[in-house]
Known about the structure:
alpha/beta, 60% helix, 7% strand, elongated
Amino acid sequence: MTQTTPAPKRRRSLARDVGAGVVVGVESVPDGLAMGLLAGVNPLAGLYAYLFGMVGAALFTSSSFMVVQTTGAIALVVSDTGFATRPDPDRALFTLSMLTGAILLVAGLAQVGRLVRFVPTAVMTGFLTAVGVNIVLGQLANLTGYAAPYDNRVAKLIDTAIHPGQWSVASIAVGLVTIAIILALQQTRIGGIGLVIAIVAGSGLAAALNAWAGASVALIGDLVAVPNGLPRPVLPTWDDMLFLVVPAFSIALICVVQGAGVSTGLPTPDGRRPNVSRDIVAQGAGNLIAGVFQGMPVGGSMGSSSIVVAAGARTRAALFLAGACMVVVILFAAETVAYVAMPALAGLLIVIGAGAIKPARIRSVLGTGPLQTVIMAVTFVLTILIPLQFAVLVGVGLGMVMFVVQQSNRVRVRELRLSDDGGMREVDPVPWIGRGTVTVLQPYGSLFFASAPTLERQLPAISRASSGAVVILRLRGIDQIGLTTIDVLRRYAAALGEAGSTLKLVVSDKDVLTQIRASGLASAIGPDNLYEGSEWVGATVRRAYADAREEVANAR
Length: 556
C-alpha cells in the first residue's frame, strides 16, 4: 500500500519551498551579475548562467539542495581565458560553457567521481585560498575607480596602491557601505536577502552621489544594455573549440572537485548518500543549457546551496521556484537592474573572496608536515601568478606527484620471527645479514616503481660475513610489483649469491608470480626458491622457513 503525504504537510512543505525559492531567486540576481563582472564578461552572462545553469542541473542532481551556479574559481578561469582575441568573444564564452558541459557529461558517465579522493587537501587549500585572494584583487578597479594598465592581479595591486590620487572617493564609499551592510546582516535572520539589501543600498548611494555630488560612479547600464526578455538560444562556434580545450578541462576539473564537496556536504531529505558521478552529469547538463542560453560556465556552489538549506527548503522544487523568481525579475525589473552600481557588486565580490580564505583549513595543512605545506604554498603562488586554467592543471600534477611520494614513503619492511610452537612475531629488521642465519622479511605498502628505492634502503645490508645465510622475502598482500622493484630484488639476490647466500620469495598473488617468472627473476634465484602462497595464512612461509633451516644446517 502506497503511503501518501498528508495535505497539510504538503502545503507546509510547498510554503517552505516557495520561501526558499524567493530568497535564492532574489539573491541570485546581484550575485549572478557580480560573477559576470568578476569574469570580465558581460554581467548578463553571469545572470543567465545563474538562471539556466541552476534550473538545468536541478533536473538531474542526486543532492536535492545542490545549487549549480557560477563560482569564484570558475569566473577567474573565464577571466584568464582571453576571449578578446576571438572573432566573436560572446559566442566563444557560450561555446566554453557547452564544451565544459560535454566534458562533464562524459566524466560523470565514466564514474570519474570515484577519483575525486585523489586530489589532495593541500592542493585544494592552496588553490581555493589563492582564488579568494584573486577575487579580492580583481575588484580593485571597480572599487577604487582606477583601472591599472596591467593584466596580472598582483601588478594591478601595486599600481593601484601607488596611485591613490586617481582613486574615486565616491566609488570607494559605495563599495565600503555595501561591504559594511553585508557583514552586518550576515549573522541575522535575513540571511541571503541581506546581499540584495546591501546592493540596493549601495546602488542607491551611488545614484545619490551621481545626482547631487556630481560623482561618476559606474553602473551596469553604463556598460551593457539590459534587455527585458529572456535570451535566445545560440549554437557553439566550432572554430573556437581548440582554443577553449584547456580552460574547459580546467573548469570541468573545478566542477568535479568543488561539486563533490557540495554534494557530500549537504543533507538529503531521504537520508541517502549522494551520487557524486550523477552530480557531475548534472553539472554537465547545467553548463550545456547555460551555454545555449548565453550564460557562462557553472558548477556546484556551496554558498548558494547553503542558502537553500538555511532558507528552509524541503524539496528540489525550491530551485525551480528560484528560477521562476529570477525570470520575473528579468522580465519586469530589467530597468532596475541597469541602475546597480559596479562598486556595490565589487563590494559583494570582495566579501565572497574573503570568505573563501579559510584560516582553520590552512592551519590544518600546516600541521600535517612540510611536504603538504610546500605543496599548498606552491599551488597558492602559481594560482596567484599564472592564468588560472594552467594553475589548475599544475595543481593536479602536483597532487599526482604528492600521491606518488606519499605512497613510496609508506613502504615498510618488518622481520618475522617464527617460533617452534607456531607463533609468529614482527620486529624491526636486523641491520645486516649474519653468517648462517635465516631471516624472514615482510614488506608492507605498494611496491610500484617510486617505492623501489625505499624498499632497497630498508633491506638488511649484505657483507662478506653474510655467507651461508638464507633471506626469505614474503610478498603476501602485494598485488602488483613494478619492474624497478624486480630489479631491486634481482640485485639483492645477486649480492646474496656473491656472499654464498640465498634469496627465497613467498608470493601469494598470481599476477605477481607471473611477473616474477616473465622477468627472469625466478630463474635468477632458482625455481626451487620461489614459493606460491595458499589460502592457509602462514603455511607457505613456514615451509620456506623449514627448507631454509635445513639448507643452513646441511651447509654447516
